[in-house]
Specification:
The protein is built from three helices and five strands; from the N terminus they run H-E-E-H-E-E-E-H. A five-stranded antiparallel beta sheet has the order 1-2-4-3-5. It is globular and about 30 Å long. Keywords: Signal.
């Protein structure tokens, strides 16, 4: 019985360690209190950008998974890394136009949004694709 309680007590900590490790593979640079840029890495698609955004929101900012993340600047020349591409995200929904997200996963339009919890799901999708 004690073993089961110990395992249950450690479960949240193990989950946190797993998500912190996920973020280490992304280059993410803060621009201000609400904006940050995810720098495109090798073979990065939209899922990885959203995964990185969720990692930043939850791990570095300590915000809840209900936080909505918006595309402020679509994929293009990075602001914080010369010669690279990136996507600027924001948590300030009043600074971007309201758009319909639809069912397409993309980062090429200003105003697209996901909650951090939904964006976090793409971390598993990205990992699954990379191990097949």
């Amino acid at each position: 019985m004690r073993y089961i309680l110990l395992v249950l007590a450690m479960s949240p900590a193990m989950g946190l360690a797993a998500t912190v490790g996920e973020e280490k593979r992304f280059q993410i640079n803060a621009l201000n209190a609400s904006d940050f840029e995810v720098i495109q890495g090798q073979n990065m698609a939209a899922a990885e950008f959203w995964c990185a955004a969720a990692s930043y929101i939850e791990n570095r900012q300590g915000l809840p998974e209900t936080t909505r993340i918006y595309v402020r600047s679509p994929r293009g020349a990075a602001r914080t890394a010369s010669g690279r591409k990136g996507v600027v995200f924001t948590t300030n929904g009043t600074s971007v136009p309201k758009v319909e997200n639809g069912l397409t996963l993309k980062v090429d339009a200003v105003g697209l949004s996901r909650t951090s919890a939904v964006a976090r799901r793409y971390c598993r999708d990205a990992f699954t694709r990379s191990t097949k």
